[in-house]
Amino acid sequence: MGTNPLSRLGRRGFFGGVAAVSAAAAAATSAQPATAAPAATPVLPLALPDPSQQRKFFAFDSGLWNGHLMSNCKVVTGQFHKDTRNNPLFREGIFEDPYLPWEPRFDNGYPNVIWDPVAKLYRCYYTLFIKDPTSKDTRPADRARKPYVISGRQTGCAYAESKDGVRWTKPQLGIVDFEGSTANNLLFTDIQGTSVLYDAKDPNPARRFKLLTLKEKGGTSLCVAFSADGIHFSDLQPWPAASGSPVPGGDCHNQVFIDPRTNEYVLITRLWDNNIRVSAMSRSTDFINWSKPVEIHRGTGFESQIYSMPVFEKHGVYLGLASMFHDGDDTRDDYDSVDLELHWSSNTAEWQPVAVDPEDATFIPHGNKRGGYPNGEFDSNVVFSAVPIEEDDKLWFYYMGGKGGHTNWRESALGRGWIEKDRYAAYVPRRGNRTTVLTTQGLNFSEGILQILADIEPGGDLRCELRNVGGTVVQPGFELSKSRVSERGDGWLDISWRGSSLSSLNPNAFYALRVEMRRTKVWAIQGIYPRPLKYTKH
User: Fold this and answer.
1) Which of 73, 105, 199, 257 ranks highest by number of CB atoms within 10 Å?
2) CA-CA distance, 401 to 377, in Å (whole number)?
3) Residue 29's domain is classified under what CATH number?
């Protein structure tokens, strides 16, 4: 897998060579008052890229908008639908029938759920404690009267599989000896934070499944292994010394994905800084030699730490499933719990929450605590998620939920839920029935189409107009009063104007789109190409 010299650029940074020209023209245009006659729209000095490079743009992407020309709006995460009919999918083995003594505590679990198109199986790889005497020997009914004591624990990696994603089996693999028997579903012992990647494009079938994990015995180190069938892996191979396996660090979900922009393997792991957990990234072209992990993201103090953050890419942005650990003050209601938030990045190196307001940030909500452990729902205190699996018009998220405190008595189980495709987060009205105004930065409409993914409630509406690139001067023929919205039947709306066509616009020019709406959620826009950003890193 080769290294792209543009690997550190944002998705629009490639066009930085024309940014200065466009920005200067935009500044000249936006300086004009709103009552001025329409001015000449700045034109790109270079040809636009191939239309195939144009993508849909999610509403939470700040690079899409002119933040100074917005009103009564905020971003909220999309609705997460839990599979309440089937959750939890499987629990710790000491609570199942048959009884599995090597599964006393999943703890965080760090689930990796993969759809294997060859075997036609869902495969789940999860971290657990294969030995935890305190959990194994204490019934839930007795735990309220005793402290949870960390003693004699041993980590491992286990495997489960399913044909439908609902009914799971834990097969007897015959690989790991546990107390004199290999009739168990264990893949390894003395490792934690395991990631398993299905790499369909690797020409070597023996490397089709790639595993990365933190080895805890015989010298702590990040290690890799390979498998043809997803079950029988090669021996663990420690990172080369030059790669700089983090110590301390790596004690989280060490998740790997393939960056489609660079064709590199990317590891999201963890470092420590002054007793604070921070997310870090490493890259590799061969899955064996890795760059030294560097910090890419952190929360706020002890109270909101990023415990782990599995990452996936969609339409040119990177989405992180950030499990936020709350520590530092045991009088807080969220103390010793783990929430799951959705974060995003345009380049993998800088991250931010999708929703800024704390009350809107949670992506996978906790279940009902019902007064606290042991009475809460299976996911009432802790959530760690795998990256999603897309099926038809849904994205399914498999996650390990826990009831009980992160460092206290806890029972964990695998659950799942879904969101509608492309509905990660939306712009919505901040205050009631007032009109919301959204204004984009300069957009190019060379394809002659404009579509918005939106939900309009009964009594709500959405209208659009085009303005100059600075967002201050309405373009004749594209006023709000002439705006038309046509439903496509899949949530996407076709936007047009009576008597005017987008195809009549200068194909090399940029225009700002102003959206006015009431009781409406805007999720994404497509059919556009944003101008090179003035305020971006290159």
Assistant:
1) 105
2) 9
3) 2.60.120
